[in-house]
Automatic annotation (TrEMBL):
The keyword Transmembrane helix applies. It is an enzyme of class 2 (transferase). This is histidine kinase. Its main location: membrane.
Length: 482
């Protein structure tokens, strides 16, 4: 804004100085030019009685013309055809006289003039044809001789340069003076804008109680009032949403906790019913009903446990109990406990040790492998390797791949959302719908990252887990070591 203000002031001062300079320059040059032209015409007219002069006194007459010059002495040159060249000085020919002026002198009996700059010096060159007079009578006949008066305009040029210097010296203090109101105006206009920017940044960082002091009644004050009203409304809305979210979390946690006790009893009963269905010789319909009750009760128990786990993450109550473990051995134990050893291929090099929470890492690998077995296709493979983060720190990288159809591109951004189903038509599934969400939370708790993608060629899904080997949080996805 200061720049714009100074630019306007500079343009205004420059335009005024330019117009003033042009008018003053024209006035100075025009005055000298008119005086010189009229004086030379008068001198030539008065001296024409005895013309054409004899060759002996031509130089003397030219010197006399030069002495009568106004506003200062002239350099007078005479030309007659191509035979006569004479001057009032030492050189009979002037380099300032142009061919254009010679043509004008031949066409205009009353004379002509031209401004010429030679070697940086301005000159006024006046051409005056000599007219033949007989006694007191002017015959109007051209004698063929042309007189040229060359008038240096150095003094006028100095006056013009002085005008330029004065204009420049006057413009610089003017701009310096204009800077003061520019700064004052910019401060009065930009201060509310800066306050609005700081307030917006403060709100963006989560401080919804941010407000702006309102001063005056101009448009910027109206903007500040609008900002304050919007911030107040946003604060009320966000507070309501946070309270509703907190109530929902407490509800899920309370319900899950209350369901654990009756579910424990139901699981004990269903185990007995399963044994009776297998040994007591129940009829087929009753046996199917017993197995259905047992299966659904187990699903409900898994859902309750997952809800309890998610509630702990939401309440920031989840903790890491880390220990230095052999990662390959930990993964083999995860597969063996769930009887997946024969169904899952592995590439697990020994010697990779890391500080992990063994129970949570077991949940991560079990959820990823179980998801691949249920929703992917053979072959399912678990790969372990070392990697490197963007900052050069070492990473533990575990990948679970399958040979299924892969994940649709529009589904990829949502696979770690809670209760998200890739197939919306499938209302029931073997899992709780929280497995990948819990997996993501456990990875984040370790300070790592998890990424879902499709294998090259679009055949099979790839889940990549990257954890810091030293147990600290790291940044983005890893790059494989070479």
């Amino acid at each position: 804004m200061v720049f714009a203000f100074l630019l306007v002031a500079a343009v205004t001062a420059g335009s005024t100085a330019t117009l003033t300079y042009r008018e003053a320059r024209n006035s100075v040059l025009q005055a000298s030019q008119d005086l010189a032209v009229s004086s030379f015409r008068e001198v030539v007219s008065e001296s024409a009685y005895d013309l054409p002069p004899g060759p002996d006194d031509l130089k003397g007459r030219l010197e006399g013309f030069a002495r009568r010059g106004k506003p200062r002495h002239w350099h007078v040159f005479a030309e007659y055809g191509t035979t006569v060249r004479e001057s009032s000085g030492t050189s009979p020919v002037s380099t300032v006289i142009t061919d254009e002026l010679r043509r004008q002198a031949a066409d205009r009996p009353t004379g002509s003039f031209q401004r010429v700059v030679k070697n940086g010096v301005p000159y006024l060159v006046i051409a005056m044809p000599m007219v033949l007079r007989m006694g007191l009578l002017d015959t109007g006949l051209d004698t063929g001789m042309v007189l040229y008066a060359v008038v240096p305009l150095e003094e006028e040029g100095a006056q013009v340069d002085a005008l330029v210097t004065a204009a420049r010296n006057g413009a610089v203090p003017g701009l310096a003076i204009a800077l003061i109101p520019a700064l004052l105006a910019a401060r009065s206009v930009l201060r509310p804008v800066r306050e609005l920017r700081r307030a917006a940044l403060s709100m963006g960082s989560g401080r919804l109680d941010t407000r702006i002091a309102v001063r005056g009644g101009d448009e910027l004050s109206d903007l500040a009032r609008t900002f304050n009203d919007t911030a107040a409304e946003l604060e009320r809305s966000v507070t309501g949403l946070r309270e509703a979210e907190a109530r929902a979390r407490r509800f899920a946690s309370d319900v899950s906790h209350e369901l654990r006790t009756p579910l424990a009893g139901m699981l004990a009963v269903t185990e007995l019913l399963d044994e009776d269905a297998a040994t007591a010789g129940l009829d087929p319909d009753t046996a199917r009903a017993v197995r259905l009750i047992s299966t659904e009760t187990e699903k409900l128990a898994v859902l309750v446990e997952d809800l309890m786990e998610i509630s702990r993450f939401d309440a920031r109550a989840a903790e890491l109990n880390t220990d230095e473990v052999d990662v390959a051995e930990t993964i083999r134990r995860t597969l063996a406990i769930r009887h997946w050893t024969g169904r899952v291929g592995t590439e697990l090099p020994d010697g990779i040790r890391a500080r992990l929470d063994p129970r949570r890492f077991d949940v991560v690998m079990a959820n990823l492998v179980g998801n691949a077995l249920r929703h992917g296709g053979d072959p399912v493979t678990v790969t372990l390797r070392r990697g490197t983060a963007d900052d050069g720190s070492p990473l533990l990288v575990a990948e679970v791949t399958d040979g299924g159809p892969g994940i649709r591109p529009e589904v990829l951004p949502y696979v770690f959302d809670r209760f998200f189903k890739a197939d919306q038509a499938r209302t029931r599934s073997a899992g709780s719908g929280l497995g990948l969400a819990i997996t993501s939370e456990n990875v984040a708790l370790h300070g790592g990252t998890i990424r879902a993608a499709n294998a090259p060629g679009g055949r099979g899904a790839v889940f990549t887990v990257a954890l810091p080997l030293d147990g600290g949080p790291r940044g983005r996805a890893p790059e494989e070591e070479t």
